[in-house]
Each structure stands twice: as C-alpha cells, then as structure tokens.
Amino acid sequence: MRMRALGVAALATLAFSATACGDNGTAQPSAAPSAASSGPASAPADKGNGKLVIWADPSRVTALKPFADQFGTENGVTVEVKEISKDNQQTFLTASQQGSGPDIMIGAHDWIGNLVQNGAIDPVTLTEEQKAAFPPIAIKAVTFDGQIYGAPYAVENVALIRNTKLVPDAPATFDEVVEKGKELKKAGKVKEVLCLPVTQKGDAYHVYPLFASAGGSLFGSTASGDPDPKKVLVGSPESIKAFGKLKDLGEKGDGALKTSITNENYIVNFAAGKCAFLVSGPWAMADVKKSGLSYDVTPVPAFKDGKPATPFVGVQTFFVASKGKSKALAQEFVANYVTNKDVAKALYDADPRPPALTAALQDVQASDPDAVKFMDAGKDGLPMPAIPEMQAIWEPFGIAETAVVKGGDADKAATAGQKAIDGSLKN
Amino acid sequence: MTLDVREAAETREAPRPRREVTTAFVVSRIAVLAVTAAVLLYAAPPLVASRSWAALAVLAVTAAVLAFLYLTRRFIPAKYLIPGTVFLIAFQVFPVLYTVSTAFTNFGDGHRGDKASAITAIETGSVRQAPGSPEYSLTVALRDGEMVFLLVDPKTKQVSLGTGEGLTGLSGAQVGVTGKVLSAPGLTVLKAPEAAARAQEVSALAVPTRGGVIKANGLSRAVEGRAALTYDAACDCVKGEGDVWKADESQGYFVNAKGEHLAQGWQVNVGFANFARVLTNPTISGYFAGVFGWNLVFALASVAGTFALGMSVALALHHPRMRGTKAYRIALILPYAMPAFAMLLVWRDMFNRDFGLINQFFGLDVDWLGQPSTARLAVILVNLWLGFPYMFLVTTGALQAIPRELTEAASIDGATPWKAFRSVTLPLLLVALTPLLISSFAFNFNNFNAIALTTEGGPFPAESPQVGSTDLLITYTFRLAFGTGGAQFGFAAAISVFIFAIVAVISAVAFRRTRRQEEVYA
What we know:
The complex is a heterodimer.
Chain A (H helix, E strand, L loop, with lengths): L1 H23 L6 H7 L4 H7 L2 E6 L1 H18 L2 E6 L4 H11 L5 E5 L3 H6 L3 E2 L5 H5 L3 H7 E2 L2 E2 L2 E6 L2 E5 L10 H13 L17 H10 L5 E3 L5 E6 L4 H13 L16 H6 L5 E4 L4 H7 L3 E4 L13 E10 L5 H11 L3 H10 L7 H8 L3 H10 L3 E2 L7 H15 L4 H16 L2
Parallel strand pairs in A: 1-2, 1-3, 13-14
Antiparallel strand pairs in A: 3-13, 4-13, 5-6, 7-13, 8-11, 8-12, 9-10
Chain B lengths: L1 H12 L2 H5 L2 H20 L1 H6 L3 H19 L4 H27 L12 H11 L1 E3 L6 E8 L2 E7 L6 E4 L4 E3 L4 E2 L5 E3 L4 E2 L2 H6 L1 H6 L1 E3 L4 E4 L4 E7 L1 E4 L4 E4 L2 E6 L4 E3 L17 H8 L1 H37 L6 H13 L2 H11 L6 H6 L9 H29 L3 H9 L4 H29 L2 H5 L20 H11 L5 H33 L1
Antiparallel strand pairs in B: 1-11, 2-3, 2-8, 2-11, 3-4, 4-5, 6-7, 9-10, 10-11, 12-13, 13-14, 14-15
Helix pairs in contact in B: 3-5, 6-20, 10-20, 11-15, 11-17, 12-15, 15-17, 16-17, 17-20, 19-20
C-alpha cells in the first residue's frame, strides 16, 4: 500500500519535472511539444524562422552584437551571436553535420576548400557594386573554383616593421636588412639580427616572402590561375635554390634566421629592442605600440636581383552555412550588412586588423596609418591557397625550413619535403 | 559462489524495508528517479523529430526498465549494479564500438555526410549567376495565401511577378525609391519582419525561367542562377560542364573518365582499407620499430623516474623525526596542482636555446629541443617534474597502511634500514601500487600532451620530415591522420584500434605478472 503510493508520487514527480525541464529548454521552447503532436516533418522547418545564429571568435562577439541587434530589430528576428574559441573550423564542420551549426560562420578564407568539400558553405552572390567596394586581392581570396564563397571583412599579411631609431631609412633590399642587422648586433645595439619566427618546427607563413623572393614556390598553377594541387613544387630546382638561400641566412650563415626565435618571443623581443627588424602582421602592433618604440611599417623587401617578396594574404570572411536553418536571413546579413562600412569599422575597433572594405580602410587611415601600410605590403601578395591540399604543405615545408636554418643540406631537405607531401596527397 | 551471495542477499532482504524506509530515503529516491526520467524524456522530442525510431525504442525500454527496477522491492543487487553498468556502456563500451565501426568507413573531411547531402552540395555549389541577368530587387508578397516574388529590374524599373510556375509581367505596382514594391493590385505585400518570419519559404521558392531559376538572395535581392552540375538518378551520375562524373560507391566520390573526382564526397564503408593502410603505409612501417622503441623508453622512464622520485620524497617525509612535513607536502603537490597544459608550454620556453631560463641559469648554450638526445632527455625531465607529485601522493597513502611495527621488527632483527626497505617496505608498497604503476605506464604510453606541447615530436631529421625523434606512436599517427590531409577520422580510428591492441597486450602481461607477485607476498 505504502509502496504503491510512493510509486504514484514518484511518477507524478517525474511527469512534473519532465515538463518543467521541457519548458526551461533553451533551444526549442515551443517546438518540442508541437513536434510530437503536429508531425515530425514540420518541426525542424519551423525552428529556423525568425532566428539567426552567428558564430564568431571571442574578440569579435562584442563588436558584432550591436549590429546583430540592429539587424534583428529591422527584420523582426532574434539574432544570437555565439562565441566560439577553439578549433573553430572543425567545430563548425562537426556541428553543421549534426544540424546544430550556425547560419553564419566567421573564419579565414583558406578554410574555403575544406568547407566546400564538406558541403558546409554556400556561394554568396555579391553585386558588381559590392565587389568593387573591396580591393581585388580580397575578392580573389574568397573566390574558389570560380565562385565567391563569403564576404571579406579584414585582410592581413606580414610586413617588415623596423625600429626607426636604429634604422632611420627603409632598406631597399633584404640583403640590406641582414647587413644592417648584423652591423647593429656587432655594435652591441641589438641581440638578434632579425626577429622572424622559425621555431623547431618551421613557420612557412612568416618565411614565405623570403622563400618567394629567392624564387621558391609551393604549387604550379592551373589554367584558371588557381594553385594546382597536382603540381607540388616544394622540391623543384628553384625551390631548392630558395631553401639554399634560407640556409645562408640561417644559424651557420648570417644568423638572421634562428630556431630559438618562436611565435611566443619574436614580437616581445622586438618590443624590448632586442632586434631592429620584425617580420610580422597587424596582430603585433598592440605590443609594438605599447613599447613606445619609434617604428615604421614597410613591405618586406626583395633580395637583390630577386623576385618580389610576396607575403601570404589571409582574408577574414563571413560564410553562409549550407545547413543553416535561416538561409535567407544569413544571405541578407552577409551580403548587405558585412559590406556596410560601419560594421567593418566596428569590427576594426574591436580587433585592429585592416578592414577589407576600401571605404572603411580610408576612414581608419587617419587614426591608424599602419593599417594602410600593411594593406600596401600585401597588395601583391599571394592569397593563402584555399585548396584542401594546402594542409599537406605546412608541416613538411616547416620541417625542411628548420633543417636548412640549422645548416642542413637544402637539396636533401627540399626533396624529403616534396616526398612527404606527395605521399600524403598520393600524387 | 554467486548463488551464495544471492541467497544471502535475499535472506537478509526480507525484514529490511520496513526498517529503512525513512523520509530521506523516499525523497532521495524520488529525486534521483525524477532526474533520470526527466533526462530520458528530454531526449525523446529530438529523436521523434529526426525519426530515429530505433533509438526511441531503446530509450523507452531503458526508461521502463529503470523505473521498474527502482520501484520494486526486488532485484537488490541489480539496483547497485545498474548505475555503474549504464555509465560503463555510455562512456566505455559505446565509444569503443563507435571507434571500431568508424575504422571501417572513410569518415573524414570530404566524406562527412551522406550521398544526398553531397549531391545537394554539388548542385548548390555549382549555381552561377546567369550572364547578363539583372540584379533583381526583391519584395515578398502573398497571393491568396501563397508566397510570390515581386521582382524589380533596377535598370528598367519594370516589375515582374515570380511564382513557382514562372515569371510574368505585372502592371499597376507602386515602386519605392529603394526598389521595393510598396503595393500591388490583388497582392498583400509583406514587410521586412513578416518576410523574415517566413524566411524558410523565401529560401524554398524557385521561379523557373528559360535559362535557370530565380531564387532569393537574402530578403531584398533575387538572382537568376543556373546550376552548372546536375545529378541524374537514371545513371547515378553528375552531369555538366561537358563532363560526366559517375558515383563510385567504393570511394564515396563522383569520378569522371579521367579518374578525377568532384570535391564533395560522402561516407561509405571501406572494409579493411584503413587497417591495410596502417600496415602498408611506408612512413608507418618504415619507422615503426624506432618510434615504438622510444615510446617504450619514454613510458618506462616516466613511470620509473616519477615513482623513484615520488617514493623517495614520500619515504623522507614519512620518517618520524621529519619536521614541517605539511609545508613540504604543499610545496611538493604544487606541480600536480598547476594545469599541466600551461606548464608544458612554460617548460618548452624554458628550454629555448637563446631565451630560455635553463641555458641562462646554467650559462649553457645547448639547443635542448633541437637535438635528438637532449630533446629526449628534456621531455623525460619535464614529465618527471609533472608526474612525481602523483607518485608521492599515492606512496604516502600506501605507506600509512604499512604498520611501523614491521620495520621496527626488522631493525630489531638486525636489518639495516636499506635491507628493511628492500625486503619489507618496498614489496608491501608494490602490492598496493603495481596496478597504479601499470595504469601510469598506459597513460604515459599515450601521453600526447607531453610531446605535442613541448617538442611537437621534433627535432625532425631533414630526410624524414614525418617522424621526429621524440614522436610517440600517438603523436606521429595523429599527424598522419589529422595533420596533412585534413581530418581523416576513419584512418585515425583504425590507428587507435592498433594502439589499443598494443597497450592492452602490454597491460595484460603486466597484470598477469602482478597477480603472481601478489600471490607471493600476500
């Protein structure tokens, strides 16, 4: 008798707490019960209407919020800006696949190849007018296989930042950079010739301008001018020569490239006056400005009689998720809001990377001349290859770089790198 | 044996409930059951929505069984066993089965979804704006409750009506300055929020034209597009751009005559291909012995080093004449209390040749992480620092359990302290600690962080950029599975199965030896 009463009480509690739980559910307050009653097919379709979900990294969430709210008010929808901070690309892909992903994702343009092969993003149609509002390199970066896959909002690339107290005039060639650096080191004015991160595993991104200037290249190009994954050129004779050049700059040569200079210490060292030259991007400027050094930003100069020292150009982009629930809203936001000058400026204020929108860049110029200088340094740069095959390049290239910087044989290092890359691409 | 236990349980059970049904007991039981049921019921709507009937059935049966079990007075042992079993299934058995089943697929970048979503992705990805077509400005309207598009050509200001049947001219519409239609005869023009509320319908409406379809691009513009690639179910192939890609179910790709495939693929069963790839991959087979050898050395050195150091410190603090043991203990626990993740990065920077604390402090110029031998020494030292507090803690605990009389008796019998330690303390310690040492070995055998956050497997010899001197099996196979070709979950799962086999064999052998040892000392 007593036990039965107990059972009834328990069941009642169960039912009660279950409904309470359902009401508190954040994602689908009203959709959940209706899903059970009105048939399963309509339930997921209803969920997206009137709600737009944006995923952004922590530094951008606050900047986006006011514009997201404004967009929400204008269109009578709720906009949720969600912070996502770790492994963004993989998190987005996994969530998308499960149907719990956002409508809009913010990320680097070189994700495009991988996102496209996973069917995670849709092309975006920009009007001719909208396209013209961006510099050609930004549009080129977000174009993949002839289609534009997102709206660019910030462009970043490395440049040569120099301490103008130690080196008043911009060096015309990279040979001069090294010469001047060595001279200052000898005089005891600096500790290192150059601050460019090499690390124990190599850093293809920062060293690429030098590699390119010495004649090296990563991929051949297809008929349409895109990088051709079938033609990896890391082990080509030209690239071997370029690795040889890096060896000359390395620990057994000029001592300009050193494995002890890492991503953690290269900016700090420059800010502390331990080197007169820094190869870095806009992200270094906060530390450099804080140090109070007098500095200038110029393009990375080419070697004497060398090819142009083209840096990699990365473009931060708004993507429309294929599996988003409010695609029309997402397209509206990406095509008409991201191309808006005020949004671009607000994003710049939150995280000072040079805005992609030309009008916004001009606005920013007055308060931050560096932004334009960085943009200039990258205008002939190489948009980071967005093909998925690029992932196979980074590590073997970096290891070859470290090997030659430590004085290893350029031919051997480049050939082994090529072999490793071909092996993983099955060329 | 089992029968005895049950009988004992049942005989003891009979008089029990009457005594033990207290208010607290009832309330706590109701609370726990309520929470369990709430969690289970909460999972139901999404399963209904995604039509996963099998999963729903499992859920219902589980809920019923749990409710029945805890509402009856019988099955006392099961009441104690079930929670552990549920967690074992959820967190051990299921992940293992899932990993093994993934190992037989090509799940990974390019092969995440099913074929239908690959086809959708291929078709939408190939839609291009029809050349020369206008950038229509879009107004959404309703005609007898059905959604229609009002399209304004920005150049001619001409208004057209787009429906699911096609495009027709429309007269009498009033167009605003921005190109939005303000009103039109016989139609209800929707304002922005109204259109936004029907965003799904807006995206779904396709207006067929001669060259393609007009679809909304956002809520204020519409574009005439044409899919360059289309799927043909009759030949199970994708056609377009003057080529044909046939579905290849063994690869999960659409492949053309030249053997090239479209970027978007789908997940297929690949049988033992991933396992074969592990066994035949020249990078794996060529360097396996070396990496495996170093992996053993690393795990053994880590366990032996941390145990030796931890035990010595514990013994020293266990000495009755030791003063200030509390302060020492706090200091010794510190490395264990700090997040290993951050400490590993700090150690990496301390080993930096030019800017690291270690070279500066000792006045050295050693490229610690740049040479194979010093890099190996460095990672073992770091791991020693991180790991010894744990050994110190468990040894301290185990020492409390060894009666002091035993060592006192040994010293009365004339044993030197060393002899007493060797023959009395250490064997008794090992009985308690060997299982922990074995699990510590298994942990260090796969200690991904200790390598990935310090040397990243390096230094790498120039001639083999895929295998570094400090690479463990787990770090170098991780690189193969995730570093170069995007994420290859199927391949990674196959590797995990192999590593699991290796660790399981080593642990099984070790446990068997321990049992024998226990028999000797017990």
